[in-house]
Amino acid sequence: MAKVDVGDAAPDFELPGTGGMSFKLSTHRGHNIVLAFYPGDATTVCTKQFCSYRDKAEEMDRLDAKVVGISPQSVDSHERWTEEQELNLPLLADEDLAVSKSYGVTGWLGPLARLTGLDDTPGGRYVQRAIFIVDGEGIVRYRHVSRTGARFQSVEDIESALAAIA
What we know:
The chain is of the alpha/beta class.
């Protein structure tokens, strides 16, 4: 499994997402992109994370970046969760974990992951909670991977990371 680090070229990808969108990273050159990898729709910590982003929509709008969520659930699952929680960020479906693997943020499903409600994962693997900031030239400028997935990067954390690369 590859590990993308700060200073590396961000692996390009294209994934389907909510709202009928298709997101291709390379088409967003010239803009900062925040890739928010997360284990699963409707899980406890993921819901807290994305609802905190929803609740701080004004701060998120002021970020000098487009933020997208990435997890292995289907677009249908993302659409349901978006509607249930009134989420305001696009969610992308990495159903085969190809993008998550290319960024080095998958792990084997163990007892800790099962406690979060991730009972059914592709090939026994799950997506770790992680934030990558890709600059306008396609270079990774920030990387944070949560070892346990119990904590997430807040809007303030993302804002500070973006300020540091400006």
